[in-house]
Amino acid sequence: MHITQLNRECLLHLFSFLDRNSRKNLAKTCHKLLEVFQDPLLWSLLNFHSPVELKKDNFLLGPALKHLSICWYSERVKVCNIEDWMKNSFQKDFCKRHENTVSDFLLDVCNRCPNLLSLTLSGCGHVTDDCILQLLKNCPNLKSLKLENCVQITDHTLEAVTLHGASLRTLHVDFCRNVTQAGLERVRAKCPSVMLRAERSANMIPDSKPGKKLMLAKGSRKLVQL
Question: Which residues cross the membrane (predicted)?
């Protein structure tokens, strides 16, 4: 039996075991398999591990997408989580080349994936509060939002959760150094049903501008600005 003689349900099941590149390559072989590749039911879950993957034409964004994960762990990507004023020219050039990659992708998700249930972002140093705000507004069914080492995320995202995260049940803001304890307390007060986790966030030293340094005062645990 040839693969094209299988019914659609069987083909969808077969495709579900393949990675995105393999699905795309198989879809190029005939029109019937291309139709299976384009079936929204195949694209309820997407995981990305590098900026390059977001620009490939080997996946489909649509209303069927329920779970999205963008997790960058490479040493090169970690450069984007360094404060801008501390980066050298090479690091700034590297960040400039893909600083809008995730933001532009998330904008597409906002416009095309209204049924998103969970979003995980890790190491996405260029993602801003505005990106998360738009997602919360356009994806009203979002139940899980997990942010890790997203350095531009601040209390504005926490405020957006209290205003637009009616369906949210899980919120992680781990290693987000510009989130404050006050912002976390507001979420706890206004959204008691949300399971909130903020590992190493509010206790981390926030970004400081050039010419200003944050250090521990002698004999104290409080940060002072010099």
Answer: none
Q: Which of 195, 186, 180, 179 is nearest to 163 (CA)?
A: 186
Q: What DSSP state is assigned to residue 156? A: H
> Domain segments of the chain: what residues?
1-42, 43-51+58-197
Class of 43-51+58-197 in CATH = alpha beta
Alpha helices in 63-167 (DSSP H): 75-78, 89-98, 101-112, 129-138, 155-164
- What does DSSP say about strands 223-225 and 214-216: parallel, antiparallel, or unpaired? antiparallel
Cα–Cα nearest to 50, from 33, 69, 29, 23: 69
| pTM of the full structure | 0.82
Alpha helical stretches, state H, 69-112: 75-78, 89-98, 101-112
d(CA 13, CA 7): 10
Token readout for 75 is 């040493």
Provide the 10 A C-beta neighbour count for residue 77. Answer: 21
* CATH number corresponding to 1-42: 1.20.1280
pLDDT in tens, 65-97: 999 999 986 555 565 666 665 666 756 666 666
